């Protein structure tokens, strides 16, 4: 997986930001690579290498029917001449939705997994059965978070980025957040926006830190009140915000991750949660491929 373009930085000039004297820049990981967007590029980088080094014939992974991770895995496996297999939670929609159609178009084999079986997918016995069924495949967990993924996401930041006071990003499984915890500067605050409902994410981050022996130098915080009802849930206000950012500020956001993060961040700005003069770098983690399926399902017209 060769890097094809450098991540772009985009300054956002909203009246609210000027009024509060908060500087906001977006690190556009969504333009990092023409097809493999955002944090998933970094999460896959060392996993693909490991699969090749181990002589595996392919990659096997898991995800929902709209998964950015499944999409990215299909493309990077194809580019690396590895077979790709995805176990899809629940039914496989027919005709395939845009995410799965892209994945299948890159040669990925898709298999449905009942929701009950899907819940058992980390069970060593289930993994063994899959290995027996599919042969010498390299297994990557749902969402792609493992030790090598965290090693990959710890390379998202560069020296320019360490000049910022706050680094903001959306949080799903926490793998990307953990990689940034491993690499952010001691002066910085890492500010996560959980897209899943609940408080479990705090314990999950602590678990990831412990199992990967990460001792962050920076401080961190995860907001849990900007999930808009839960994973892939939304409100008309969120959709209107995403359209405004796209049309008025040339910033495309996805409704599952980056839209919620930026909405939350600006809401915090409006509530004076940041000192005047604060410099924020928000990480655009990608996910734009999912917009097509989202619009098809909900008629949101993003
Ligand atoms: C997967 C994903 C995330 C969440 O990453 P985690 O490492 O699971 O926390 C955030 N943004 C986008 C666009 C994603 O696809």
From TrEMBL:
Highest classification ranks of the organism: Bacteria, Pseudomonadati, Bacteroidota, Cytophagia, Cytophagales
Keywords for the protein's UniProt record, in alphabetical order: Pyridoxal phosphate
Residues covered by the Tryptophan synthase beta chain-like PALP domain: 14-286
Pfam families: PALP
Record's protein name: 1-aminocyclopropane-1-carboxylate deaminase/D-cysteine desulfhydrase, PLP-dependent ACC family
PANTHER family linked to this entry: 1-AMINOCYCLOPROPANE-1-CARBOXYLATE DEAMINASE-RELATED (PTHR43780:SF2)
Cofactor names: pyridoxal 5'-phosphate
Entry's Gene Ontology molecular function annotations: D-cysteine desulfhydrase activity
Catalytic residues (positions): 67 (nucleophile)
Keyword Cell cycle: no
Chain positions with N6-(pyridoxal phosphate)lysine modification: 40
Family to which this protein belongs: Belongs to the ACC deaminase/D-cysteine desulfhydrase family.
Magnesium among keywords: no
